[in-house]
Amino acid sequence: MENETFEKLFSGRFPFWKELDASEKEAMLSASEQRRYPAGARLQDELRECAGMILIRSGSLRVYMISDEGREVTLYRLYPDDVCVLSAACVLDSITFTVQIDAEEDADVIVTASRAVRRLSDGNVFVRCFANETAVRRFSDVMWSMQQLLFLKADRRLARFLTEESRKIEGPVRMTHEQIARQIGSAREVVSRLLKDFEQEGMVRLGRKSVEILDPLRLTETAEESAPVRKQK
What is the pTM of this model? Predict the structure, then answer.
């Protein structure tokens, strides 16, 4: 029954599925399993072998890098129906770095073992093209994150993050100052100071592990001032 469920999901999500022969489909199904990770769980880091290709069914994941000093920079986030191939970096010869992946909230995912993805990619051009194209799209997200980190001041990065996050969840941003700092690549102390400034200016209301947007127009103006324009995909 599980294989039947996976086959239905794969046929709807992976364009290469119809190009696989019966043995290739069976190999991918046999190498796939459903996993559940609680919020805060680590899926991958530099100490673990690359996890494989991940299909998110529910919840969200954060993909980031961490410096030797422990500073974290969020590269992008993944949501239901997204696919992560950087978690199978050992499949893509051109990728020479390892990303960290955490569950931001309780997440159900389907993981296809990297060894199976590698064999499929080596033997089937459609799988290889999918992996490369997906990686390129994610690198676009990475470059966007780097652009903001390098060229936007912390107050604008924070305002931009709060604006986008509140629109997405349609309510208060329920994160600690430490979690927000990780998202925008800053220090907790900097985020706490800026949030206090925003509160004093009437743009937000701070609660326990939450930030409520009171004046979205002013916050948007702060976020967009001198901000780089993101090209639509």
Answer: 0.69
